[in-house]
Amino acid sequence: MTIELSAATFKLADQAALSPAQQQLEQTLLTFIREHRQQPKTGLFVIHGDAGTGKSAVLAAAFSRLQALSRSQTPNDLQGTENYLVVNHNEMLKIYKRLAGEDPNLRKKDFQKPTPLINRLAKTATPADVVFIDEAHLLLTQPDRYNKFTGQNQLTELIKQCRVVVLVFDTRQVLKLKSYWQTSDLAPFLAKYPQQTFNLDEQFRVTGNASVINWIDQFTQGQLLPRPQDANFDFRIFADGQPMYDLIRQRDQQVALSRLIATADFPYVVNHGTWYVTAGSLKIPWDKVNLTDDPWALRPETLNEVGSIYTIQGFDLNYAGVILGPSVGYDAASDAIIVRPERYEDQEAFKKRDDLGQLTPLKSQLIFNSINVLMKRGRYGLYLYAVDPALRQRLLAL
After folding, report:
1. Residues 19 and 152 in one domain
2. Residue 10: inside a domain, yes or no?
């Protein structure tokens, strides 16, 4: 198996590298924009796809093409349009801004977080032509004082300010109650506005075969399958965290972009010293607040840290060592994976909401979503260590 060194942590491919389905999506998307940009109602284009199906890659390629037409000196129907790409994720925003420095069609100001863009467009009362929203499942669905968002729903506010909205949406990557979405929550928007949907279902990140993908999918729904077999994908289960970390370090030296990542099951307080993740004999710091312009996975020193769902969501790694913390357990009677929300340390993710009914099953789903995000990071290998002794023994016995 030949492994290419990756220069970025999600594949922002050129046109030649896009798959036939991605190329079809790009063409369909630009046609939709042309048809709906001057209509009286905002047009909505929704892209669905699981983690690793190349949503960000095709979105970036289409946005670059749109901006090339907007800034072209040759007259065309999209010349002079005002367009933005929005993502509610600091680390992904850094990658997009880095992309802007490498692409003559792009500017750093083209890429925004949602709240500043919403507030600026509302203040100027001038609508944008097209707004692309990557990871739209991270948009807020309630007011958030910390993020200075006073509206009820960020998607609602963006639709008010734009002629066409293109959004990438995957409910299996929702990680917090304050941005809680389920597929049915899109229905009122789709019923109210002219819309089109496109599904990406080919896995581009994880190179493992169908048995590997199915094993992960079933695990994140609570079910255990026999250990998947794939000679070209390195899938391993460890009895201790230290040898897993040693192998990750070795892989990073060989091919780069190999990191430890973990469920949010270990104490952490922002800007209050160093906090640690414990995995058997391994004790290693959580990721630090990243004030640099470089995304977490691209910084060499982060090989000595453990990444969280918030630093790794949306990115490619070559090899991922995943630590399943105390909230992830095993029920022998049903031979099933269980989760324990009371053991989950990211209680900010469970911030109380009165409009969602019974929260316990939703909290469990958020934990399973986080596991799905973590397990689908590694392109060429997935290594697992479970803190819970019963789960660890069951995995080792597969």
Report:
1. yes
2. no
- Of the candidates 167, 200, 233, which is a domain's last residue? 200
Asked if residue 9 is part of any domain, the answer here is no
Is 282 in contact with 245 (CB distance < 8 Å)? Answer: yes
Three-state secondary structure call for residue 75? coil
Burial-class residue 292 by CB neighbours within 10 Å (0-12, 13-18, 19+). Answer: exposed
**CB of 46 within 8 A of CB of 198?**
yes
Does any domain span residue 344?
A: yes
Residue 338 falls within a domain, yes or no? yes
- Kindly state whether residues 58 and 182 are assigned to the same domain: yes
For residue 386, the SS3 value is strand
Residue 351 CB contacts under 8 Å (≥ 6 apart), including other chains: 176, 177, 178
Euclidean distance between CA atoms 393 and 119, whole angstroms? 52
Quote the radius of gyration of the chain (alpha carbons, Å).
21
Residues 378 and 259 in one domain: yes
pTM of the model: 0.83
pLDDT digit string, tens, across residues 175-184? 888 777 766 7
d(CA 396, CA 89): 35
Render pLDDT for 70-129 as a digit per residue (tens, 0 to 9): 999 999 999 999 999 999 988 889 888 888 888 899 999 999 999 999 999 999 888 999
Residue-wise over 254-279: b if at least 16 C-beta within 10 A, else e? ebbbbbbbbbbbbebeeeeeebebbb
| Domain span including residue 111 | 15-200
